[in-house]
Specification:
By secondary structure, this protein is mainly alpha-helical. 78% of the residues lie in helices and 0% in strands. It has one domain.
Length: 245
């Protein structure tokens, strides 16, 4: 091969590499619109997800599938994963539920403590009054307002858990270790970033809207909305996770 041809071949290879790098860079982010379209990429996989969501307990497999979508998005692969390794999907879906429950546990404890003490206080106050009277009504209102601070605190904890739980689950998915979900320094570092906050607000609003709208369709609407919202939710957040240092 002549020197001129070798030089030309090297130039062509460099150009191909540059195009590949540019292509890789462009594919490292999935847009919101593409994330919304993703569940419809393969109708067969969509129908399998809907069918499994109908079955209690077995539906944990679908939760695991959502995490698989997140894992692929972390690796910049934006295609619906195959329905395989069902036991692994089930276990991870179940563990994700456990993680979410633990994050919500403080809010649940505070709520039931406030509710329980309110009921006891109300019973004591009503013991000295006649039921269905203005006095009784005033006692009920007084009891509710006296514990409003506790209820507000429980709501704050609930909102915080709702915000942090997906990031904790994503950390579990990335590290493939259950306890990684409770590495609070890592979870807080990524969760309290503008990238995560913006993406979380966007997908939460979208997911709620989708589930509410599709729930109006009898029988299949609820599961249809849950599946497409779940795929979009975890794909978008999984992609964002990989971009937060």
């Amino acid at each position: 091969m002549s020197p001129a041809r070798k030089k030309t071949k090297k130039i062509v290879k460099r150009k191909v590499r540059k195009k590949e790098v540019r292509s890789l860079g462009a594919s490292r982010t999935i847009s919101f619109i593409d994330a919304v379209k993703l569940p419809f990429q393969d109708i067969k996989k969509l129908l399998i997800g809907m069918l499994l969501l109908f079955i209690p307990i077995v539906s944990f497999i679908v939760r695991g599938y959502f995490l698989k979508c997140a894992k692929k998005a972390m690796n910049y692969k934006f295609k619906l994963p195959e329905w395989e390794g069902w036991w692994d999907l089930f276990v991870k879906g179940f563990l994700a539920r456990v993680i979410a429950f633990i994050y919500f546990l403080p809010a649940v404890i505070v709520f039931f403590y406030v509710f329980g003490t309110s009921m006891i206080e109300l019973v004591i106050r009503l013991a000295d009054t006649e039921l269905v009277t203005d006095v009784a009504a005033n006692q009920i209102l007084t009891t509710l307002f006296s514990n409003i601070g506790g209820l507000v605190f429980a709501c704050v904890l609930c909102t915080l858990a709702w915000y942090l739980a997906p990031m904790a689950i994503l950390n579990f998915v990335k590290k493939n270790k259950f306890l990684s979900a409770f590495s609070l320094a890592a979870v807080f570092n990524k969760a309290f970033s503008m990238k995560y906050f913006n993406a979380w607000v966007l997908v939460v609003v979208y997911s709620l809207a989708v589930i509410i709208v599709f729930s109006m369709i009898p029988i299949v609407g609820g599961v249809f909305g849950t599946f497409i919202a779940g795929v979009t939710f975890y794909t978008l957040l999984g992609n964002v996770y990989s971009k937060i240092k």
